[in-house]
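User: For my dataset I need records formatted as: sequence, then structure tokens, nothing else. Please produce one.
Assistant:
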Amino acid sequence: MKKIFFYMVGLAAVMMGAASCGDNKDISVLHELTPEEQAELNRQDSLKNAQLNRVNADLLLEYEAEITISQTAYTGGGASADVAVEIDKIAELFGLSGEEILSQIAEAFPGDLTGFAISGTTHEDVSGASNTNAPWGHWWDANGDITTWGDAAYVFAEFDAETGAFVVGQFPARLTDGQEITFIECLKYNEKRVAVVITVTAKAPGEITAAVVNTQQLSISITPRSDYTTNPLEFNLSQTLSDLGVDSMADVAFIGVNADGSYAREPSTPNGYWYEATGFVGAWGDNARVYTSYGEEHLADNQIGIGQMPSTLAEGDQLTVKYGFLANNKIEMLQIAITVIGYVDPETPPAGEPESTTQDITLAKPYSEDYATVSADIKELLRNAFKKTTYQIHQAIASGELKVYLGEVPEEAPTYTADVPGYWIKADGSVTTWGSESVVWCSVGHSETELYLYGGNHPDATGSNTVSIVMIITYNGVAVTLSITFSITAPEE
């Protein structure tokens, strides 16, 4: 098959200065180009552009994708698009079946089929089939050049071998309305080349103009927390469904109210939003205070969740947020008054003076690839040693006053390498970071009502492993030393 390889001959020689400029010897005077000289420069620019814009491929497949600009989402809800690739045409060129091509891509190119890309600005080949989570696909910058996730990233493509399509998504809050980005994903087999050229057009989300048909006035009192756990708050579900004219909450979209009065339509929590101290929608971070959610497992159909940014609220804080349900161009609004009250500790500290203690603990679990955990209850052990309530110990962990060490207690503060406070651990029981030497991790878990030791295995540490660990927990002037035997058993063949 004749290559689709558009190229031009080398540039013609620049016209001689003597012929174009005569005997002009006054170099301080700007030379005015003759029409012939200007025409020659224009021709050379045209040749350069043609050379630059060539696509070196035996088969060129061109597609368009339109995605809606998102402030929070990489994919879904219009923030991404599926671009089906004509695998049959690629198969015909390569002399392979479509199934063979999809299989080799799914297995990350184990054979002669390879994936790569072409730079948007230079049109040079860029090796490597992927720098995304898919076997074939890349992150792209605004010029259609390959980049990585981060400051320069605008869009990405990830090929799904099951569907035969690229998922084309975006880096949140980066695209502008009407912006176009063209990028080139490629395949090669026995010197035959296929270029998949995708032009992405970004569009702004439409403004919500629905009317508020009803506002439910709700209130809740919460205590300051050091975690993200939500408190349930009931709303009138039957009235909501009736007002919106829907049969279930599966038919509604979830909105929040921005500071300018417009509606936020991209949830940043489970079907809900983060809110700042002003009560308007914000983002997770230093200014966040509370969030709403809907559909969490522990919530009933007539309950929303009210969570908080850990360790940011204090007794006496008050704020009001608006959280809406949208369907059939109508809005049911929940106006929620949130009051932060002091925590009422249900426990009393154990009697007596704090005293150091030691305890042997065995943790065991089968090897798994999913970071599944196993745990042991250490609540009463810590309460009795430190002579504090569960809540007081929980707060001490959150503030960093309680410290956890591995092996010994040095003079400097601990540097945790796993879930805080905790560590990734080598086979010899010493501290490491997540990586090739990691075998298990072990941490202290905590909440207002629970204190536990937990951990799991590194996915790359296959087979059976037994790791011996000495973990030292210091607080209130004493130490609890845990001699831990952590066993990981290999799955049965």
